[in-house]
Specification:
By secondary structure, this protein is of the alpha/beta class. Helix content is 40%, strand content 18%. It has ten helices and twelve strands. 46% of the residues are buried. The mean pLDDT is 96. Bound molecules: nicotinamide-adenine-dinucleotide. Nicotinamide-adenine-dinucleotide binds next to helix 1, helix 4, strand 5 and strand 7.
């Protein structure tokens, strides 16, 4: 089996490459990444030593880059992680989000169709559903929930989902989409909440919190996400969407306080700032379809994995 992983030098792409190399040592994996500010080739240092892994620097928006990768490596499966992924950056500069997340996905789809790939898997996000009120704890997004994205980031991801589904309906391309909640674990860029909090806490720097910090996110350990994607690309049904969540709903402020406690740092490091524009209140995801239809049940224990993650960033900061 030959798998093309786009965005392989980013946070989840890197974890997915390592997971697939250990789970399927007989697969040939090609990583494609343009190495934006968010991509770090150093993350893939161990993978680059494997004869099963090849890295190609290239841009999913560039047809000649994408064509040459498909011609040379003839993937059976494409997993598209490549994206601009930071909500705050999308509020400041939306255009690049449409360019990469929508038009880049279309370039990949066109090439996947030409090469008759067996499966195109789009990595989407639960943020395409918008947010839920804080007080209605029983509400969760299902795959049938309407798309109501709030930020230019989530709107670009929702648009990409629609073009993926259009390629399925119009041209018969074999596709699946997964919509996952917030990931945590190693190799994440330090602009994101968990690594940023750990880094600032270690250096006794101020930790800025948007608004009151009561916004709730549903956290999943990144390798659990990778396992779910592996399940979907092998067992998922053509044309279907699968939510991926782990039922770990925590407010941002509680999560920050947990990290401070683990690092033995005072809560006085926290300062509250003006809220993010259009800030989503609560995400909560129903992943029963993935569990019932594909038998997925591999979830890590949140507290253990958070402790491991904090340790990983602490060690990385010393290196
Ligand atoms: N991080 C999360 O919590 C989360 C949750 C749900 C879904 N997702 C989705 O998962 C995917 C990966 O997210 P992440 O957190 O690893 O993001 P990331 O920003 O860490 O990595 C994105 C990678 O894509 C690469 N890239 C960007 N533009 C490119 C282009 N034009 N051509 C080729 N490569 C390009 C970057 O260099 C980077 O390596 C994204 O599609 C994101 O929407 C992320």
């Amino acid at each position: 089996m030959r798998i093309l992983v786009t965005g392989a030098a980013g946070f989840i792409g890197t974890n997915f490459v390592y997971y697939m190399l250990s789970k399927h040592p007989d697969y040939e994996i090609t990583g494609l990444d343009s190495l934006t500010y968010a991509g770090n080739i150093g993350n893939l240092e161990r993978a680059l030593k494997s004869p099963s892994f090849t890295f190609v620097k290239g841009d999913i928006r560039c047809r000649s880059d994408v064509t040459s990768v498909f011609d040379k490596y003839s993937p059976d499966i494409v997993v598209n992680f490549a994206a601009e992924s930071h909500v705050d950056r999308s509020i400041d500069s939306p255009a690049i989000f449409l360019d990469t997340n929508v038009l880049g996905t279309e370039v990949l789809l066109e090439e996947a169709l030409k090469h008759d790939v067996k499966r195109f898997h789009q990595i989407s996000t639960d943020e395409v559903y918008g947010d839920l009120p804080l007080e209605k704890k029983n509400l969760r997004f299902t795959e049938q929930s309407i798309l109501r994205p709030s930020s230019p980031y989530s709107a670009s991801k929702a648009s990409a989902d629609l073009i993926v589904l259009a390629y399925h309906r119009t041209y018969g391309l074999n596709v699946t989409i997964s919509r996952c909640s917030n990931n945590f674990g190693p190799y994440q860029h330090e602009e994101k909440l968990i690594p940023k909090t750990i880094k600032n806490a270690i250096s006794d720097n101020v930790i800025s919190v948007y608004g009151t910090g009561e916004n709730i996110r549903d956290w999943i350990y990144v390798i659990d996400h990778c396992k779910a994607v592996d399940t979907i690309i092998h067992k998922g049904k053509d044309g279907e969407i699968y939510n991926i969540g782990a039922d770990n709903e925590i407010s941002n402020i509680s999560l920050i306080k947990m990290i401070l406690k683990a690092l033995n740092k005072p809560e006085s490091l926290i300062t509250y700032t003006a809220d993010r524009k259009g800030h989503d209140l609560r995400y909560a995801i129903d992943s029963s379809k993935l569990q019932k239809e594909l038998g997925f049940s591999e979830y890590s224990e949140f507290n253990n994995k958070l402790a491991e993650t904090i340790m990983w960033y602490k060690i990385s900061a010393i290196k």
